[in-house]
Amino acid sequence: MPEHALTVQALDHSFGDLQVLEGIDLTVGKGEFVSVVGPSGSGKSTLFHLIGGLLTPSAGQIAINGEPSVGRRGRIGYMPQQPALMPWRTIQDNVVLAREISRKKVDRAQAREWLARVGLEDFATAYPHQLSGGMQQRVAFLRALLAEQELLCLDEPFSALDAMTRTEMHRWLLDIWEADRRAILFVTHNIEEALLLSDTVYVFTRRPATVLERITVPFGRPRRDEVVDDPEFVKLRRRLTDLLTGSPR
Ligand SMILES: Nc1ncnc2c1ncn2[C@@H]1O[C@H](COP(=O)(O)OP(=O)(O)OP(=O)(O)O)[C@@H](O)[C@H]1O
Ligand SMILES: [Mg+2]
Hints:
Layout lengths: L3 E12 L2 E12 L3 E5 L6 H8 L7 E6 L2 E2 L8 E3 L11 H5 L1 H5 L6 H10 L15 H14 L4 E5 L7 H17 L3 E5 L3 H7 L2 E5 L6 E6 L14 H15 L4
Parallel strand pairs: 3-8, 3-9, 6-7, 7-8
Antiparallel strand pairs: 1-2, 1-4, 4-5, 9-10
This protein binds adenosine-5'-triphosphate and magnesium ion.
Magnesium ion binds next to helix 1.
């Protein structure tokens, strides 16, 4: 059994003359929750597109569960930064889409049960345009989760949510994840969110992105919201803020 859900080694990527990623080394252990924070435009979504096989890197290696995965699709549960729901499919049919594509059993009753858990039980047969941006994000999140891949890549899944809903979603995500430890790679701009959820936080520099720092988050599991008041949490939040605003590099 490979010990890592994801290994990224010496990854470079350029779009024509624009170099976006430079020598990225990153691992996500089995059942580990890893976040990436970095300036806007540094290449975080590009990294996800490479891991998901939508793009082929200029150089470097990607392995998912120990298998070389450059250019291979369908090996991760992926939630894109834009929810990308199919407008002609109902919400429940959007939720089961990833399963349908990977030929897994499609279970609409299960989809509805999950929709209820994110407060969308009344929208199972609605269409995406009838939902707010934040509601669409929750649907896209469920879809990634129900794909049942061992590695989930979530690209700013909660960015469109208000602070209260975001806190609810954190609780919900931690409950799910603590119960069935899948590996998660999570992009966020929110430092507090990264520290609250993760075992490890990678800080990227501006483009071309390199790994500025890899921070181990020392708090145990299950982790509760009160951790934000811990002096060590406050110190780490300060450190991350400094790294990100100190215009490093
Ligand atoms: N398909 C593409 N073709 C050309 N350039 C691209 C393409 N996709 C992304 N870029 C460029 O690559 C850089 C990194 O984009 P990316 O979306 O990965 O950033 P990001 O870190 O996810 O930013 P944000 O935090 O704002 O989501 C940007 O300068 C963007 O313009
Ligand atoms: Mg992005």
